[in-house]
Amino acid sequence: MRRTTSGRPHRFEPARLVLGLVVLAIAGLHVLRASGEADVPLPVLFALLPLGLACTAAVAVVALTARRARRRAVERGRPRP
Description:
Keywords: Membrane, Transmembrane, Transmembrane helix. The chain crosses the membrane at residues 44-66. By secondary structure, this protein is mostly helical. It has one domain. It is built from two helices and no strands. The chain has helices at 14-35, 42-75. Helix 1 (14-35) runs antiparallel to helix 2. The longest helix is centred in the last third of the chain and has 34 residues, at 42-75. It is elongated and about 60 Å long. The model has no long low-confidence stretch (mean pLDDT 88).
């Protein structure tokens, strides 16, 4: 198994988690709409994907900023939290 520089099997990517949850929610709404359980307009379903992608991008930027700040703190000799 390939390992990252930190020795872990893979790095946690919160943006991927958010994107997966958004896509699952959209799929669930589509299933509810198709079965007649919920009256969700189709344009709302189409609008949710770009909104979810924007939310995912924001989470990715925050995660990247946190990783850079942590790396800089380690390089300066400060202990890791």
